[in-house]
Amino acid sequence: MATVGSASLLVAFALAVYATLAAPFAGLRRDRRLTASAANAVIASFAATLVAAAALLIALARHDFSIGIVADTTSRSLPTGYVLSAFWASQPGSLLLWLTVLGGASTVVMLTNRHRNRELMPWVTAVLGGIMVFFSAMAAFVSPPFASTAGGTPANGFGLDPSLQNPYMVAHPPTLYMGYVSLAVPFAFAMAALVTGRTDARWLVAVRRWTLFSWTCLGVGMLLGAHWAYVEIGWGGYWAWDPVENAALMPWLAATAFLHSVMVQEKKGMLKVWNMVLVSIAFSLSLLGTFLTRSGVVNSIHAFVQSDVGIYLLGFIAVVIVLATALIIWRLPLLRSEHRLESIVSREATFLFNNLLLLALAFTILWGVLFPVLSEAVRDVRSTVSTPYYNFFLVAFGLPLLLLIGVGPLIAWRRASLGSLAKTFRWPAMSALAAAALLALLGLGSSPAGLAAISLCVFVTITIGLEFARGTAARRAISGGSWPGALVALIGRNRRRYGGYIVHLAIVLLVLGVTASGAYSTVREATLSPGDSMGVDGYTLTFLGFGKETGPNSTTTLARLDVSKGGSHVTTLSPGRRFYPVEGRVTNEVAIRTSVTGTDLYTILQAISADGRSVQIKTLVNPMVGLIWLAGAVFLLGALITIWPDPREARQIARRYAAALAREA
Amino acid sequence: MSSAAAAIAVALLVGAAVVAVAWPFLSPDRGRPEDRLSEADRTRIDLLERRDAAYAALRDLEQDHRTGKVTGEDYTAEREELRREAAAVLRMLDDLDSKHDTAHREA
Amino acid sequence: MIARPRLVIALAVASLLAVFLVYTAVAGSSTLLVSVAQLHDGKDGAKTRTVQLTGMAVSCQGGPCGEAQAPFTFTLRDEGSNLTVPVRYTGGGVPDAFKENRRVIVTGKLEGGTFVAERDSLVTKCPSKYSSGGSGS
Asked: Which candidate, A567, A580, A571, A631, places its Cα nearest to that of A603?
């Protein structure tokens, strides 16, 4: 298996090199056969990568401990699902996953563009090929997945870290990778547009779905990771501003800016330079994220061993940035807008402010992540920033962004009159102010930022609701029918707009969940003997006694807690400490009770006393944290609606070609 | 997996790769109908795209008008601008068609 | 309309930058990050300030580190040299990944010869040999 795997990676590398060298020639000579050959090489490279991936999966399934990463991350007693998902549990394996996803995405691009974007495709192939060259070289030469186990073949593997034996940890890396890697496609098209000088909106249309797909995967991937941290790591939170979390957030923010900014270029021919810069930043940040988690450069609970891959990745990022910058500067004359920004009170301006805020947030996060490295370089001593720094900027830049989400869709293009604005925003603004007053009365003024955030959420929700209402009414006025029918028709005919509104609603839910659980949570710790109680936010938890649970490779000691509110029994929670004899580890198993409003009662068994009689319990009440996970589902729904192909669009394209072909005949 | 089997598997893979890369040079240039379109036809398709985009923009404007986002003077001004753009594209299409017809008649 | 657009944009960029600079200058929320060796050297006042200390956890008082519960004391060793320092973890949760020969980060202050770590400040870095928590990326 190892031989087949290693050889396949060499073949994949060679094919990628051919594609990267042949494609530019094909582009310059307008040689269609050479273009097709290069495209085929990309596809063949992916096929070779698949063979290597299959070889690794087979080696894992067969418990082939002669291969290093199989021995390091699996054991005979590990359930099969986790044996296979250990594919991406090691550094070489995760690099192979990166390469596999890249190959897959590139193949889809080649296949769907066989007869489209003819001028751009040779250069798209060259860029994607170049990226494949780099990652296949890493997999083939620098961090080979099929390297033998150091010190000979052990009888049993070392097993998978227990905290990774969780369905979320199986789904989280591939989802994130699909997000990171697929940003290469818009980037490739952007560079192709610059090289060929075809900088009109054509390349944007080609990549719209790819960008949406990547952005959705990054978003969902982050939420999966956050949920895993919440239920598995068990400190009561879901986001710690750890560098590897930030590594996914930064490209997502840049991609969000790009996704919105392209609308301005499509409609008004403006922000062309912005779009080139944004897509380059997004892809560079995606590579940077990959670098940060492989180089050991910054402290993170997720850092891998320091290896050469880090240095090479850094070099590759530098090449990407230099190339993109050079191309943009070269084509600057072509990127002049057709129109000028005429008024601050216009949708164009809103998108521009949107870009600025999102990038500002991304860069402050980048600064925070790199601070230890920078401070060491300047002052020879490492300093870090932590949660207060990040939270400050999240609020400082996030609140205006939230306002823009509500305002943007309602402002007209080019120039909005203040009169019509006042009319449109009267109800939402007044409701938001009323909500703010009400919340202040309820005591939520303890966190001014929280109060502001929730009021803005009310504002945005009402503006979105009005959009749906007015749109449905207008549709019904035209074609009659029932209200629900008109609503469905409205969404069906305007998928981008109304799918986007649904995604905005998801963001509102996310902000509500984060704000409520962040600004208004309660924490209590207590040491309890059987019969003792502790109170948290109206709940009373009584320690009933110990319990025990035996699993396939573990035993758990539980602390049974009776939960009551206002005198009546609510539920029984049993947080525990789980002991894994093979790995010699103890893990915290938290117990969570979620109410219908999404508020969680979260209990942790922190310690058992030496005499084994009393327990130290930490309880948190996280208001509305469930909204965060609901937001993920709504986000996915909105994104799907927006991405879903419109049959009418396809018919239109076919009609255009049909007329030309008829004339040919 | 034995070394012989591994060698065969790799050889097959390399063979398939070589075939894939060489295929476009070896196969007869059948090509799809789209590939045989002339420059004029491609320009025409471009113009049709721009025309459809202009119509879509007008539709969006109507939608915005109906839902009260754009009213009065702003609406009229924007509508006229978009109509001018659409008309310009339609004129270019007409020019292209008449040139094509002339060429055909002369041929 | 209100003001020339270019001017407003420039002002917006300037104010974003200003917010950033003012915050980092005033709030100064950065914490020193030191190794055990640097702590012993008293680098940059590390001996008297609250710092983030990194090192390798080598042994825990009262049993295997993997089963440790707060409060407990463990020995932290420098990764470059053989210098060690006792760390008293005063309370809070112990990360699941905590075990002998794992890299950790704790926040606290040196008092007497012992580094007293704040509650809930123990972070364990995932080991290089094994898979990491949060793998991927």
From this structure: A571
pLDDT bin (cut points 50, 70, 90) of residue B29 is: low
A428 close to A459: Cβ distance less than 8 angstroms? yes
Selecting from C34, C43, C96 the residue whose C-beta is nearest the C-beta of A587 gives: C96
By Cβ distance, the residue of A3, A413, A657 closest to B34 is: A657
CA-based nearest residue in chain B for residue A266: B53
A32 vs B contacts (CB less than 8 Å): 24, 35
CB-nearest to A163 from C3, C96, C105 is C96
Helix axes A626-643, A202-228, angle to 10 degrees: 160
Model pLDDT, residue C132: 34
Q: What is the pLDDT of residue A212?
A: 93
Do C83 and C94 meet the contact criterion of CB atoms below 8 Å apart?
Answer: no
Q: Are C65 and C74 in contact (CB under 8 A)?
A: yes
Kindly report, residue by residue over A115-151, the tens digit of the pLDDT.
778 889 999 999 999 999 999 999 999 989 998 888 8
* Rg of chain B in Å (alpha carbons): 27
Beta-carbon count within 10 A of A308 CB: 13
Cβ <8 Å between B66 and A494: no
Which parts of chain A have pLDDT scores under 50? none
Q: Mutate which of A74, A85, A163 to disrupt the C interface (most C C-beta within 10 Å)?
A: A163
Cβ within 8 Å of residue A280, ≥6 positions away: A187, A190, A320, A321, A324, A325, A328
What is the spatial distance between Cα A70 and Cα A89, in angstroms, rounded to a whole number?
A: 10
Strand partners, A571: A563
Bridge partners of A601, per DSSP, are A593, A621
Buried/exposed C93-112: b ≥16 CB within 10 Å, e otherwise: bbbbbbbeebbbbbbbbbee
Q: Which of C64, C130, C135 sits opposite A158 (nearest CB)?
A: C130
CB atoms A302 and C16 under 8 Å: no
A464 contacts chain B (CB < 8 A): no
Cβ–Cβ of C69/A344 closer than 8 Å? no
Q: Which residues of A touch C34 (CB under 8 A)?
A: 381-382
* Residues composing chain C: 137
Query: How sure is the predictor about B36, in pLDDT bands with cuts at 50, 70 and 90?
Result: low
CA A72, CA A65: separation in Å to the nearest integer?
8
The CA distance from C38 to C35, in Å, is 5
Residue at A350: amino acid letter:
T
CB burial string C22-53: b at 16+ within 10 A, e below:
ebbeeeebbbbbbbbbbbbeebbebbeeebbb
**A353 or B70, which is more confident:** A353
C-alpha distance from residue C121 to each of A551, C72, C73, C111 (Å): 30, 13, 14, 17
pLDDT of C29 higher than 90? no
* Among the partner residues C96, C130, C135, nearest to A94 by beta-carbon distance: C135
Element (H, E) at A173: helix A167-182
Residues in chain A: 665
Nearest chain A residue to C27 by CA distance is A389
Token pair of A180, please? 């990171």
Q: Do chains B and C touch (3 or more CB pairs under 8 A)?
A: no
3-state secondary structure of A573: strand
Angle between helix A347-379 and helix A387-407 axes, rounded to 10 deg: 170
Does any CB of chain B come closer than 8 Å to the CB of residue A656?
Answer: yes
The Cα of C59 is separated from the nearest Cα of chain A by a number of Å equal to 14
- Separation of alpha carbons A269 and A13, rounded Å: 39
Token digits of residue C106: 């704790």
Per-residue model confidence as pLDDT tens digits over A218-230: 999 999 999 988 9
Which H/E stretch holds residue B60? helix B39-66
- Among C48, B45, C75, smallest CA distance to A652 is for B45
pLDDT of residue C96: 82
